[in-house]
Write a structure and sequence with these properties.
Elements (H helix, E strand, L loop, with lengths): L3 H12 L14 H5 L4 H16 L15 E11 L5 H4 L4 E13 L3 E10 L2 E13 L7 E13 L3 E14 L4 E16 L1 H5 L11 E14 L5 E10 L2 E11 L1
Antiparallel strand pairs: 1-2, 1-10, 2-3, 3-4, 4-5, 5-6, 6-7, 7-8, 8-9, 9-10
């Protein structure tokens, strides 16, 4: 039942992405991949997980106001899988994450963000801070913000940590706010003792994955009802396709 509300809220939007195909859970064959004793497979997994963990951190360049500004939404991120990421690549070409996200406005154009959900069959938790560089309340003029996020993924077989920085630019119009953004992610991945317990003794117990990567997305927020948004975006993450969908309330 955990995080089912997020999945239900976005099911209709994600259906449009279903043609790219979904990969499988970490538990499916991570032990077999670890048994190959090759760090490149862990690095590729770290890069793909980093794109999901770092993704969805923005859908506007405009920071929230103070003291009443808030944004509560359900998000989904879908990204392509690297060829060396055998953990996910065996069953499909993409992997996805679902999470709820809350953002509040503070003085001095500062926002705080918290999020939690699932990536594959692991539990995701994170947060961050954003700073407004430009903030416009005039339709047609741009708003720009930068942000820094930390996210972690807890799983029986691995622990992953992602550090991200982002920049987003958006323009407000009646009913629709287009935006463009880019991000950089650095991810570390450490297999757990339980994962190593399922591998031959010849496997290096110091194996770990590390990777950096980029994200670029272009999208729009549709305001079908007052103070609500439906976000649809697409782009690239480390040369692979990237999709971001969200629905929520913003004030």
């Amino acid at each position: 039942m955990k995080n089912n509300f997020v999945k239900i809220a976005l099911a209709g939007v994600l259906f449009s992405f279903s043609s790219v195909g979904f990969a499988d859970d970490i538990s499916n064959n991570f032990g077999a991949v670890l048994s190959l004793n090759e760090v490149k497979h862990l690095d590729a997994l770290a890069q793909d997980l980093g794109a999901i963990l770092g993704g969805g951190g923005f859908h506007s360049g405009k920071v929230l106001g103070f003291p009443l500004g808030f944004d509560v939404g359900a998000h989904a991120v879908v990204t392509g899988v690297q060829d060396d990421n055998l953990t996910f690549k065996d069953d499909g070409s993409t992997e996805q994450g679902y999470f709820g996200q809350v953002e509040v406005g503070l003085p001095a154009r500062i926002n705080l963000l918290a999020r939690g959900g699932q990536v594959a069959d692991g539990d995701m938790l994170g947060g961050g801070i954003s700073l407004g560089i430009l903030k416009s309340d005039v339709p047609g003029l741009p708003s720009l913000s930068v942000s820094a996020l930390y996210n972690q993924l807890d799983h029986d077989y691995l622990d992953a940590k992602t550090y991200s920085v982002n920049a987003a630019l958006s323009i407000e119009f009646p009913l629709i706010d287009p935006y463009i953004g880019a991000g950089y992610d650095y991810t570390t991945l450490d297999p757990t003792a339980k994962a190593f317990a399922e591998t031959p003794a010849s496997v290096d117990r110091s194996l770990e994955g590390k990777s950096s990567g980029y994200r670029v997305e272009v999208g729009a927020n549709l305001h079908l009802l007052p103070f609500t948004y439906l976000t649809l975006a697409a782009g690239l993450a480390n040369g692979q396709e990237l999709y971001h969908a969200a629905a929520g309330v913003r004030f």
